[in-house]
Amino acid sequence: MTGRDIRKRFSLAAYAVRLRRGIEAKVFRLALRITLIAVLATAIISVSGLFLLRASMSRISTNLTGQMSEGSRKSLEKQALDELSQEARAKASLLDEHIYLIDYFAYMLVDESERILRYPEVYPQFPVEPPESSNDGRLVMQLLHDDRTSIEEARRDSARFGNLGSIMLAIAQNGPDVLSAYVSLESGSTIIADSDSGLHASGSLNAKQRPWYRAAVEAEDLAWSEIYEDTAGRGFVITCSVPFYAKDGSLDGVGAIDLKLSRFSDISGIAELTENTSIFLLNSQGALIDEDSEVGSSDTPLDGEAGNAEKPGNLAESSDSKLRELAEAMMDDKQGVRQVALDGEDVYVAFAPLENLDWNLAVVQSVEKVMEPIRLGERSIEAMQTQAHHAITQAISVMVAALVVAAFTIIVLVALLSRRFAHALTAPITLLRQRVSEIASGNLDTVIAIDTSDEIEDLGASVSSMSRELKEHIRNLNKVTAERERIGAELSIATRIQNAMLPQASSPFPERHEFRLVASMQAAKEVGGDFYDFFLIDDDTLVVIMADVSGKGVPAALFMAISKTVIKHNAMGGMGPGEALSSANKLLCESNSASMFVTVFIGYLTISTGRFRYANAGHTPPLIRRSDAGFELLPMLPGMVLAGLEGIRYRELVTSLSRGDEILLYTDGVTEMANERHELFGEERLIHAVSNVPQSQFERLLPELKSQVFAFAGSAEQTDDLTVLALQFVACDASCAEDARRLGERKQTDMTSVIPSVMTSSMTSSTTPPVHGESDGDLNSMRQARRISTHTNQGEMHE
């Protein structure tokens, strides 16, 4: 605010000063007249009206207190029940995440089983032995069979399923409520990861007669069983099972994971619970499962009758009609709050359905606990009403006495004080004018001290406050401006550093004529998490990499730098695509306290033959265009993201490139670019955009794609990094062979090793957690990947 603005704002004060001479006399005469009239009128009217006012205020206070009490009661009760319902939905959401993880493990198990059956030549024989009593208490792989299958036949049918050991043992170890993980083949064999070898001493299991097997076959997809008693006598369990099929659609078997009910029902650990609050679960049959549910034990053999476990109670069969109505509402997948009696105590039950399991979760809190703040509020309102009645009576008495005394006093003193009052009224205005002039001239340290206890004093205090605030605002503005300039400079340097880490995207390898390569990255922020890379590991091998780190900004850029360095180091060290990803995953999983991950596609092109080996770690499938066809998805095996789970092995696929064939690598920032209507660009538009560019105009491929993506987005903000890499195989002729021979005489510089301490420091400095559902490896992506793996019939593709 400038001095001109201040003078304009306080022009009214300056105007009042100019009228100072006339104001003093006018105020004196006016004050005397008004005082006499006011005192007489007020004395007559007030004394008679105050007693009527007391009666009216008492009546209004009583009515208002009753209305406030009733309204407050309803409002507080509704608020308490809404909070209880929100707590039930929050707890159900947390339990859903745990169930979602079990679903994910089950799909991962059957996907690997399908690959073993479809590509047996890739997997070595890894036999699993029958149960041995010496392994009792140890988590090991065991071979079981049904009554119609001999142990020799079971060994023959499952000879390669020992390769599932790392996955099955990891599932059984990582789930606190997982009892066992197993795969049952239609031929009668069962491979199980279990720690109770003594319970399976007979080596027999009729899996196809079990309810979980039949449920998965009938559903033709993932299914959760009802509660049943384990045939090994370990109490009640529930099972998540998924069928898997041969290429011709025939059933090959079922993969399943057992959860022990006594551990699964320990739901008090879901989140912090308030005092006098409890939680229970209700399945689709009405069985009540709470944290006090006990499951008995039994020494019955594996093929014996059911044990003596105590089955959970059934709320739907309760003798209390309100409890039965509660069970019916919960089983109808509703959510709400009901008041019922449990163990002789009135309670509120807030319930919400689980998304990934046909169960419901309920939060129970006593009515007394909910009503406690309501009753406290009612008592407070009653106390306020009593105090109000007393204060009204006392105030009226004081006012009557004060009016009598004031009437006499004012009439006597007004004549003596009127002139002094007039002078005192104009003096602060003069002082205010002087101080405002000083502020307008730029002296912001000016203090206006006016003690008149009226609007003029408030105006003076406001001007002083405005002066201080204006001075502070100017100081803060200078500080913020300097800080923004510093941050902007640092981000600009970070952007240049990240761009320098990526290889030259324009005309790389100008001396090589066997292939053409273009790449581009456009970050959503100053720095991004996407990256691409390409390099020659020898004269005849070109490596291309495309990756997408979870999150955005500086944390993603740090993780991107580590991931790029580790992967390139592995490739330059002689590792193949799958081995390079497996080694990088192991290193990135160490000390990954920030829980970040990265999706990666890596391919090795043998330049002399056109052979293209590649592996995928949860990345978006690339596009390939043959010389005589349009773009299509490159056949892909689903793979886990890097830094997501330790011990993952990444498989390789191989295809052959002919002259003119093209491969397009990209991140999900391309297909998930949204326009103003929140529509996604998608794979269909992507394929259409790049297919319109002829192979002879390869250099136009990326500019044309980016042009169409941003034209589709319009004015919508870019929310994700946009990274693309295109490779065209030209094939080798006599001239390029001579160039390759000369290039072979050069020695490549060894890549600097990754310093582990740098990786640990960078990963722990990032605080951006993954968002549930952000990973490319979620269940929808896995289902899509299984369908592609099942139905694709590429003659060139093999592991």
UniProtKB/TrEMBL annotation:
GO cellular component: plasma membrane
SUPFAM superfamilies: HAMP domain-like (SSF158472), PP2C-like (SSF81606), Sensory domain-like (SSF103190)
Biased composition (Low complexity): 751-771
GO biological process: one example: signal transduction
The keyword ATP-binding is annotated on this UniProt entry: no
Coiled coil: 463-490
InterPro entries named in the record: Bact_Sigma-Reg (IPR052016), dCache_1 (IPR033479), HAMP_dom (IPR003660), PPM-type-like_dom_sf (IPR036457), PPM-type_phosphatase-like_dom (IPR001932), Sensor-like_sf (IPR029151)
GO molecular function, one term: phosphatase activity
Keywords: Cell membrane, Coiled coil, Hydrolase, Membrane, Transmembrane, Transmembrane helix
Residue ranges, annotated region (Disordered): 292-318, 744-781
Membrane topology according to the record: Multi-pass membrane protein
Subcellular location: Cell membrane
Record Gene3D superfamilies: 6.10.340.10, PAS domain, PPM-type phosphatase domain
Domain HAMP: 423-475
Presence of keyword Repressor: no
Membrane spanning stretches: 30-53, 395-417
Cross-referenced PANTHER family: STAGE II SPORULATION PROTEIN E, STAGE II SPORULATION PROTEIN E-RELATED
Name recorded for this polypeptide: SpoIIE family protein phosphatase
Organism: Bifidobacterium fermentum
